[in-house]
């Protein structure tokens, strides 16, 4: 699981700047919609919801890229005892982070469906 998330994170690194740009645009759109005079227009409300959901997904994408970019490798036969213990401890915490990331992803999928009423 860690190797899969690490591979995805390294392959998607070129899209990090694009995700920052999209997040800034979506946040700007949300702010401009909130500063407008209130109206009875349902289209604006649905666009705000879509922008909010997009910001949540971009935040999750950036979490993936920043956390799982540098996972220590399992190949540590030539290292000393303390170095192997350190790597195993680091990998344990990465496993916990991966579990939290997958749980957070499932929660965001559920909230996306609820917010979009699909």
Automatic annotation (TrEMBL):
Keywords: Membrane, Transmembrane, Transmembrane helix. It comes from the Bacteria. The chain crosses the membrane at residues 20-37, 49-72, 92-113. This is Uncharacterized protein. It comes from Colwellia psychrerythraea (Vibrio psychroerythus).
